[in-house]
Amino acid sequence: MSGHSKWSSIKHKKAATDAKKGKIFSKLAKEISVTAKLGGGDPDANARLRTILTKARAANMPAANIDKAIKKGTGELPGVSYEEASYECYGPGGVAIMMTVLTDNKNRTVAELRHLIDKHNGRMADAGSVSWLFEKKGLIVISKNVISEDDLIEIALEAGADDVSSDDDESYEIYTDPREFAAVKEQIEAREVPIESADLSMIPKTTVQLTGKEAKQTLTLVELLEDHDDTQEVHANFDIPSELVAEIAGE
Question: Which domain holds residue 42?
Fold first, then answer.
């Protein structure tokens, strides 16, 4: 997971100053609206909404935008009706990729995603072909600059986390059962440990090691899929050396 974790860390840091922040806010607004529509606009009674609002605040999304998105979801304000869908594909080197989208036109979205995938040496896969390679977990990322590994392990495991790992020089990854995610996150926050990112994620059970041309092609494809207007999440099981990820990301 080292390469994938490193890529996630780079994306998180870029998001704070990314010139495409308007697009980030747009994607978050979609997700907030759909979640409020499905489970109500009260975050105290809608756990999924609480998680998304944490992401939105971490991205410095204005409170007015958040409130507007919630009201569109609950019907207090007019808004577009979005559908949630998942698609699966194989990327260069046989990497498994899963995409979650929110769209007002499934036919358009899948056609555009298929075009991107075909153009970058991948192929669409049938439903279920890829998803079995992943399991849903809570993932909390902590900078190594703010706490020692021993102290973090003690806090995380005491709070109910499954595991704490470290695949690079910059961050720790805490993995939780989805049902324990909120409690673990709250306990870490209560101990005043700064969190870089926290979300429910699809963690690969096995990984595909990539180097050279295939590594670069895969990161290019993943970034393009993430940048698509309708894409909310992209998960992949590549393992690329951290130094190579940083080199490619800096090009």
Answer: 2-74
